[in-house]
Amino acid sequence: MIRAYVDIETDDGRAITVVGVFRPDRGCRQWVRPNFSRIELVNFLNGVECLMSYNGARFDLPLIKSQLRVDLEAMFLHRDLMLDCWAHNLKGGLKNVERLLGIHRDTEGIDGLAAIRLWHAHRRGDAEALETLLRYNREDVENLESLALKLGVVAVDSAREVLCR
């Protein structure tokens, strides 16, 4: 099963600033406002059978649909890993769940509010802020793979992968 993980960052007005997608077979790809490309996003996802996110059903995918005019839920099976976490009594945001499960993060201490601040610092000309924001988003999408493995949603041996439901 070819899968991909998606996560977005937004500003304080909920406008998308970064779209990150991780495909275990192709690596990570990110788009930064204003350089979003619907065609590149869809092409990068070509062949994917299951798209996974954390709280994506309520946040990421609706914003991508309304702002970028790409309906990922209509195009792919979608699995919101937050619901799997709830089923294992793992509550809270992604960073909290990562801590509970021992998933490492180099950008420890950065959260959604800090991501908004990094975006504003970037807009004021701080190149390092954008680099940090992109590293944070990259860890979000790459750590979703670790989360799916720890939850047993996907298995290390691809022949035993659980299908997206």
Tags for this model:
165 residues, alpha/beta, Nucleotidyltransferase, domain 5, five-stranded mixed β-sheet, 7 helices, 5 strands
In short:
This protein is α/β, with parallel strands linked by helices and 165 residues long.
Secondary structure layout plus pairing:
Blueprint lengths: L2 E8 L5 E8 L3 E6 L5 H7 L5 E4 L6 H9 L3 H4 L1 E4 H7 L6 H8 L10 H12 L3 H25 L14
Parallel strand pairs: 1-4, 4-5
Antiparallel strand pairs: 1-2, 2-3
Class by SSE composition: alpha/beta
What is the number of helical segments per DSSP (H or I, 4+ residues)?
Answer: 7
- Quickly give the CATH architecture: 2-Layer Sandwich
Largest sheet data? 5 strands, mixed
Describe this structure as you would to a colleague.
This protein is α/β, with parallel strands linked by helices and 165 residues long. It has one domain (3-154): Nucleotidyltransferase, domain 5 (2-Layer Sandwich). It has seven helices and five strands, in the order βββαβααβαααα. It has helices at residues 38-44, 60-68, 72-75, 81-87, 94-101, 112-123, 127-151; strands at 3-10, 16-23, 27-32, 50-53, 77-80. Strands 3-2-1-4-5 form a five-stranded mixed β-sheet. Helix 6 runs antiparallel to helix 7 (127-151). The longest helix has 25 residues, at 127-151. It is globular, with a radius of gyration of 15 Å.
